[in-house]
Request: fold
Amino acid sequence: MRIRITEVGPRDGLQNIKVPIPTDAKVRMVDILSESGVEEVEVSSFVSPKWVPQLSDAEEVFRRIKRREGVIYSALVPNLRGLERALSVGVDKIALFTAASETFNRKNTNATIEESIRRFIPVVREARNSGLVVRGYISTAFHCYFEGRIPPEKVLEVAVRLFDIGVDEVSLGDTTGRAVPEDVKRLLEVILRDFPPQKIVLHFHDTYGMGIANVWTAYSEFGINRFDSSAGGLGGCPFVPGASGNVATEDVVFLFEQSGVETGIDLRRVVEGARVIVEATDGCVGLQSHISKVLERGRL
Ligand code: HMG
Ligand code: MG
Reply:
């Protein structure tokens, strides 16, 4: 079973970085990651620039990247305004986002879960009319910084609503990076009763170093083969105190390749993509991944 990676570094990886990153560097990062063999690159977000200033150049990034055939270029969209912006630069796929925790959703989108889903209905319709693929993210699928542990049944309820309004896939986000393999089992046992594993993507943050263990559990015990990860382990959500980067793409690639599971991804290219950001920020941003540290020592 081939592993399918959505490289979220240019979006999740950068959205929380406070120092300015030149658009040029973002474009270079996306172009290098496009050549690494990942199936999809989440390039940016068409959200309010007041909420996430770092990604306010989303249109320019999209206009300047070199599209590589076979790679899907996606972006976050919160509302119809975001969809219009995304369509104006020809995105292939959009990602809507809500949460399983009311408190987090309010802080992230200024809406209740139900309000955010109702807001998505015309967005999905318009996106479909324009031939786009639509993802729905559920943040805080395991744990919320404000509300604590989230029951799997609550996540299922939100997933049912998202599939009902017509999303093609749901990505379950461990926003705080607090999930451990037992949590992954508890959630997937519930979700996969109603939905096939091909429709489910897992999105782990690595705050407690559990990302790789969680990825392996989802793959080996539940047959999930679609994961979000970020080059260099960059990332975090600006609306969760202390949330750190996503599980690193190169660590995920190393895990699978060493276990005899093909990814088709060149992990050195992935690390090169992340290094663009280290250089563009004069080292203010560092690589978080295990593999990037091994590579720095010169041997893999
Ligand atoms: P709001 O303030 O309630 O909405 O924000 P509003 O409609 O009143 O808009 C406020 C201002 O933003 C207005 O401008 C709008 O025009 C403008 P003003 O009149 O004040 O000058 N605006 C926009 N501008 C450009 N593009 C748009 C847009 N929409 C409104 N699309 C809203 C509601 C949802 C827009 C806001 O809360 C928002 O943008 N939130 C984004 C938050 C975000 O990006 N969070 C990080 C991504 S989610 C994440 O990281 C989790 C994930 O990785 C999974 C996981 O780890 O769990 C996906
Ligand atoms: Mg995230």
The domain at 4-296 is CATH 3.20.20.70 (TIM Barrel). The longest strand covers residues 93-99. Strands lie at 4-7, 40-45, 72-76, 93-99, 133-139, 143-144, 148-149, 169-174, 200-204, 226-229.
